[in-house]
Amino acid sequence: MFAVERKNDIEILRMQYGSANAMDLNFCVELTKTVRTLTESSSRAIVLTGQGKIFCAGVDLPQLLEGGVEYVRQFLPALDEVLETLFFCPKPVIAAVNGHAIAGGCLLACCADRRLMAAGKARIGVPELRVGVPFPTVPLEIMRARTGSSFFEEVALGGATYVVPEALNKGLIDGVVEPEQLLAEAIIVAESLAAIRPELYALSKQQARRPVREAIDSRTRLDETEIAALWESAETHAAVQAFVERTLKK
Length: 250
Prior knowledge:
The structure is a single chain. The chain is an alpha/beta fold and 250 residues long. It has a single domain, classed as Alpha-Beta Complex (2-enoyl-CoA Hydratase, Chain A, domain 1). It has helices at 25-40, 61-87, 104-110, 128-131, 137-147, 152-158, 164-170, 182-194, 198-208, 210-217, 221-232, 234-249; strands at residues 2-7, 10-15, 45-49, 54-56, 93-97, 100-102, 114-118, 123-125, 161-163, 175-177. The chain has a six-stranded mixed beta sheet, sandwiched between helices. A four-stranded mixed beta sheet has the order 4-6-8-9. α5 (137-147) packs across α6 (152-158). The longest helix has 27 residues, at 61-87.
């Protein structure tokens, strides 16, 4: 499911969850556990990557449809938890985006402190609204922080996915690397950040990301109730079903 390899003080966390690293409930729970374990280890930084031509294809929509309302009620908190665990990890986290990073996959990448993406035809973006589901507060605030005011609404509300040069321009990634050099370059970046005293880096990262923490903590019960109701609704189920059917035809 998740393979961990240590190179000196750097932990390489490779997602190996099926062919596409589709995010279901189990994926979110187990990735949260893994990241927490690495956070407590003696390593100084984490590199997150995928396999083959896919970094992460996002939420497992067929599983969401099959599981129904009860599954959604378990899945949404688990999704929030894994994203918060990565985003607020006190250690440097580097995303080595080896391929497509769609919806939840883009969110995982955007949780990282630095995001390097392999050159090529892969796409990255958050098409949630076009899939037919709303953004929960945690994903939305992470995207707001990582894309910046210039492109946030375009990226979040437009629902597009971007090829690598466009993704760099929109702030979804920080750099582009040839595929065969991606992991090595990510490790170099991780080693550079790991050279900073851990307690200094952790405090500064906490300060830098405090506005996101405060925005998440200030969400209202009304917001969460409305978001949950939309995710659980028959209309959303039908929209997701239609999206899955359209995607399978391609």
